[in-house]
């Protein structure tokens, strides 16, 4: 089974995000693995009028929220089932597009540039950063924002994941990697889990220089 087929099998078995959150909102951005927990879109700075790319866009909920705030959004996901669900769910929202593609293939082939790139438990966790980060930087405007989140690393070794390889790095290692591939003002932190949770979330933000 190919990597794309593995991810598609995983996607088919996944539940989409619920329609309304705890405060009654129909769109919202969630960086962590816990519902209604952690920071919001302010991590990215103002998004109105900005072109946003999400790598590993899933059902499109995070990207759709940014579009409701005035961004234009493109979501890329390796699983065809993700594109189908996202297009069905957000069909009425203008300024939002979804494509099926592997992240490095898309970045190598596109001539589009972006003001913001985000990855929430997405491609940045599953693709070799020495390959992915320079590709991301090549498609970003100077001063643009890259932000991503995933589980904290147990070590800096590459470990097998459910549908691919997880590239687990420490906060310091991510800072070094980003700096070496054309990013600056790197901020890397751990978001503590909510009460009852036992694993936090790593959140990293950097600016394209």
From TrEMBL:
Organism taxonomic ancestry: Bacteria, Bacillati, Actinomycetota, Actinomycetes, Kitasatosporales
InterPro entries named in the record: Methyltransf_25, SAM-dependent_MTases_sf
Pfam families registered for this protein in UniProt: Methyltransf_25 (PF13649)
Presence of keyword Transferase: yes
Keywords of the record: Methyltransferase, Transferase
Species name: Streptomyces filamentosus
The name this protein goes by in its record: Class I SAM-dependent methyltransferase
Superkingdom assignment: Bacteria
A molecular function (GO) term: methyltransferase activity
Single biological process term from Gene Ontology: methylation
């Amino acid at each position: 089974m190919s990597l794309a087929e593995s991810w598609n099998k995983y996607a088919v078995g996944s539940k989409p995000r619920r329609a309304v959150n705890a405060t009654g909102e129909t769109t919202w951005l969630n960086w962590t693995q816990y519902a209604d927990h952690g920071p919001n879109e302010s991590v990215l700075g103002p998004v109105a009028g900005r072109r946003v790319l999400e790598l590993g866009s899933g059902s499109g909920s995070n990207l759709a929220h940014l579009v409701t705030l005035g961004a234009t959004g493109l979501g890329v996901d390796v699983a065809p089932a993700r594109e189908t669900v996202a297009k069905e769910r957000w069909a009425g929202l203008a300024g939002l597009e979804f494509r099926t593609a592997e992240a490095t293939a898309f970045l190598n082939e596109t001539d589009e540039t972006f003001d913001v790139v985000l990855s929430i438990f997405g491609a940045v966790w599953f693709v070799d950063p020495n390959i992915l980060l320079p590709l991301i930087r090549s498609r970003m405007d100077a001063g643009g924002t890259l932000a991503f989140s995933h589980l904290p690393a147990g070590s800096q070794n590459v470990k097998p994941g459910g549908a691919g390889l997880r590239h687990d790095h420490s906060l310091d290692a991510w800072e070094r990697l980003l700096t070496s591939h054309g990013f600056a003002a790197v901020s890397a932190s751990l978001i503590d889990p909510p009460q009852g949770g036992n694993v936090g979330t790593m959140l990293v933000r950097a600016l394209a220089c």
